[in-house]
TrEMBL record:
Organism of derivation: Streptomyces oceani
UniProt xrefs under SMART domains: S_TKc
Keywords of the record: ATP-binding, Kinase, Nucleotide-binding, Signal, Transferase
Family designation: Belongs to the leucine-binding protein family.
Source taxonomy: Bacteria, Bacillati, Actinomycetota, Actinomycetes, Kitasatosporales
SUPFAM superfamilies, A to Z: Periplasmic binding protein-like I, Protein kinase-like (PK-like)
Protein name stated in the entry: Protein kinase domain-containing protein
Length: 723
């Protein structure tokens, strides 16, 4: 947790406003800082006595440069540094979750399945660290931060490039007893290699599985002695009944990691490979109680000095900033910095992209890929994606002036994160696939993004709209829609301009977090922008009955009701609101635009307004030719997101054609770069992107109203200043 600033702490560091203390160590103090763009960062300031040491700055500069080369979803990224400043500092992305050590102390050991997933992801982080020529040297529970989508390895404070001189003084042991390798226990050894980090990882995983270090506790000297001379105590590892075929090997794998001889230990890449099938229970890498702890910790950490909490009398109510505080751009920056429970995941894997860097032989031809849920619970949306892209490809191939033909490759993930990784691999392996439309769910994005990123295969996201990828150092993803935050913001703007709305109520259902949180934050910022009063409440995750929360909100005499959550949750809320004879405006966002809402709510759904990123092309004159062509080709009206997928496919096709040379399209990496710089006017919207992170730059939201048991398209919500 953060600590208040002290009298001697600086107000700013390297352009970061200092907000709080995060901790202190042997190298310096770590502060929570905010950059000029609003992004949060963990800013480490080096101690003056170290800064004055001869040759320190040169060594520090080398290590900063090496740390910048570490690119992994599971390691925090360096966002800034000034080794030559009077007070040297280093900034990394800020992750607000608890450390692994805090989580174990609070909730006890993790299930075997979670330990396996933790090991897979941290091994991936260490693989990237070692590939950059760095040895971390302090892999311990306090340096692993937990997030919903995976762990983050932090604190490279004593890390150093292989073969370089350590920052610590001669004769001192660098690291944390209990998680040190035997070679680290001997301060006379100047050179440490990657096997040292592997040993520490073994200690950390044993601790996560049992709640105790494998070489016991006690004085530093006693722990170091046992580390060098004793065998590890792995009693209890893998015996909780929550393992699988992958994690059954965990005890043996940890013994290999904890071998006294560095040469006998597996590499980080080998550990990652051997744990490739470890994903946690039911695909969720952490147990539910730890996820709730992460959410609560994150909410507390976001109570920053210039964000004032709303006066509410119920535990878990959201912290709502006052007028003039957080802007929409700042919230996007918060998400980019890791403040939102975001950042995409999935085990990273290196794949041979093709025979010549991304362009296949002409025997196979070039292709667009569709990665979607084609046979699972979300198959309607997935099949609409596939048909929209197929129509675009066929229309391209019918042109007489085309420089090349395209084929269509599909990959079905059935709506699961694990299958998403396999689906991505199948498309990456086909060197002819130059861009992918999909995946179709945020969860599938988590499973697939690392694979696409390794191949720099552009992934055009039509339906997923969470913050997960924004601000990460990715080159492949492109958001072809506004983020869900923007939907919440524009819904709020619509409410505040609606006659008769002066005091809305907002209910965030944590079952749908992090999307529900992001929608709620957009609503909150929209209300604040217009200085509207509102009444917020938060419902804990997986709560069967939201009735008491609805009653509480309506009891506050609100005149509008906004729900951020699932379609199933919205159905129950709609019934409760209708039973209370509330006749004010009721609104939600596109997660609710599902048959489950209409079926579950029945007549209580009538009149609800739903803000979405998708349109109904049959009610858009501009889409008439598309709708006609779609019906002629497939014999049915276009489903949800069909025209959006069609637009995304044509965006990719236009860039492929414009970048073609001698009848050959550009390679994957070149296409990924040109897509972010492109401007394309489609049927549904104009596409403009942030070239740094691929975020859709326009603020856009479409309204639908439930009428006669159906979603009726109303058109776009006017943006700020348009009404």
């Amino acid at each position: 947790m953060s600590e208040p600033l002290r009298a001697g702490d600086p107000a700013t560091i390297g352009g970061h406003r200092v907000l709080a203390r995060l901790g202190a160590g042997g190298m310096g103090v770590v502060y929570l800082g905010r950059s000029g763009t609003g992004a949060l960062a963990a800013v480490k300031v080096v101690l003056p006595e170290l800064a004055d040491e001869p040759d320190f700055r040169a060594r520090f500069r080398r290590e900063v440069e090496a740390a910048r080369r570490v690119v992994s979803p599971w390691a925090v990224a360096v966002t800034g540094a000034e080794p030559d400043a009077p007070t040297p500092w280093l900034a990394t992305t800020f992750v607000p979750g608890p450390s692994l050590g805090e989580a174990i102390r609070r909730s006890g050991p993790l299930p075997t399945s979670s330990v396996g997933a933790l090991g897979r992801m941290l091994a991936g982080a260490l693989r990237a660290v070692h590939a950059a020529g760095i040895v971390h040297r302090d892999v311990k529970p306090a340096n692993v931060i937990l997030a919903v989508d995976g762990p983050r390895l932090i604190d490279f404070g004593i890390a150093r490039a292989e073969g370089s001189t350590a920052l610590t003084a001669s004769g001192l042991v660098a690291g944390t007893p209990g998680f040190l390798s035997p070679e680290q226990a001997d301060p006379r050894l100047e050179r440490l290699g990657p096997p040292s980090d592997v040993f520490s990882l073994g200690c950390l995983l044993a601790y996560a599985a049992t709640g105790r270090p494998p070489f016991g506790e006690g004085t530093a000297e006693a722990m170091l002695y046992r580390t060098v001379h004793d065998e590890p105590d792995l009693t209890g590892v893998g015996t909780d009944g929550h393992g699988d075929a992958t994690t059954d090997q965990l005890p043996a794998l940890l013994r290999e990691c904890l071998a006294k001889d560095p040469a006998a230990r597996p590499s980080a890449a080998e550990i990652e490979s051997r744990l490739a099938g470890a994903t946690g229970l039911g695909g969720a890498w952490l147990p539910e109680h730890v996820v709730r702890d992460i959410a609560d910790r994150s909410a507390r950490m976001l109570a920053l000095p210039d964000i004032e909490g709303t006066v509410v009398d119920q535990p878990g109510a959201p912290q709502v900033p006052p007028p003039g505080g957080t802007s929409r751009r700042r919230v996007l920056a918060l998400a980019a910095s890791g403040t939102v429970l975001a950042a995409a995941g999935g085990g990273a894997a290196v794949w041979a992209v093709s025979r010549d860097g991304g362009t296949p032989s002409t025997d196979d031809g070039w292709a667009l890929g569709v990665h979607a849920d084609l046979s699972g619970s979300g198959k309607d949306v997935g099949q609409a994606h596939e048909r929209g892209v197929r129509l675009a490809v066929e229309q391209h191939n019918a042109r007489g002036d085309k420089p090349f033909e395209l084929r269509l490759r599909t990959a079905d993930d059935r709506g699961t994160q694990q299958r998403a990784k396999a689906a991505a691999r199948s498309l990456v392996r086909d060197g002819g696939v130059l861009a992918v439309i999909g995946p179709t769910t945020d969860e599938a994005v988590d499973g697939a993004v690392a694979t696409y990123e390794e191949a720099v295969l552009p992934m055009l996201l039509v339906k997923p709209g969470a913050f997960r990828l924004v601000g990460r150092q990715y080159r492949a993803p492109l958001h072809c829609r506004p983020l869900v935050y923007a939907l919440g913001f524009l819904i709020a703007m619509h409410l505040t301009h609606h006659k008769g709305v002066s005091y809305p109520g907002v209910l965030q259902d944590r079952t749908a977090d992090p999307v529900a949180w992001q929608v709620t934050q957009g609503v909150v910022d929209g209300m604040r922008k217009t200085r509207k009063r509102f009444y917020p409440r938060v419902a804990p995750a997986v709560l069967d009955d939201l009735g008491p929360h609805v009653k509480d909100i309506l009891g506050a005499k609100v005149d509008a009701f906004v729900y951020a959550g699932t379609a199933e949750g919205a159905a129950g809320v709609a019934r409760d609101v209708a039973a209370a004879e509330f006749d004010g405006l009721r609104a939600a966002t596109e997660e609710v635009a599902e048959p489950a809402f209409l079926d579950g709510a029945g007549s209580a759904a009538e009149g609800w307004l739903i803000g979405t990123s998708f349109v109904d092309p049959e009610r858009m004159p501009k889409a008439e030719s598309f709708t006609r062509a779609f019906r002629e080709r497939f014999g049915s009206p276009p489903g949800r997101y069909a025209v959006e997928a069609y637009d995304a496919a044509n965006l990719a096709i236009e860039e492929l054609v414009s970048g073609a040379r001698d009848g050959r399209p550009p390679e994957r990496a070149d296409l990924a770069k040109s897509l972010r710089a492109s401007r394309y006017r489609g049927i549904t919207k104009s596409f403009v992107f942030d070239p740094e992170d691929g975020r859709f730059e326009e603020e856009l939201c479409y309204l639908h109203r439930v009428e006669n048991g159906e979603f009726r398209f109303l058109g776009a919500v006017p943006g700020p200043g348009e009404e």
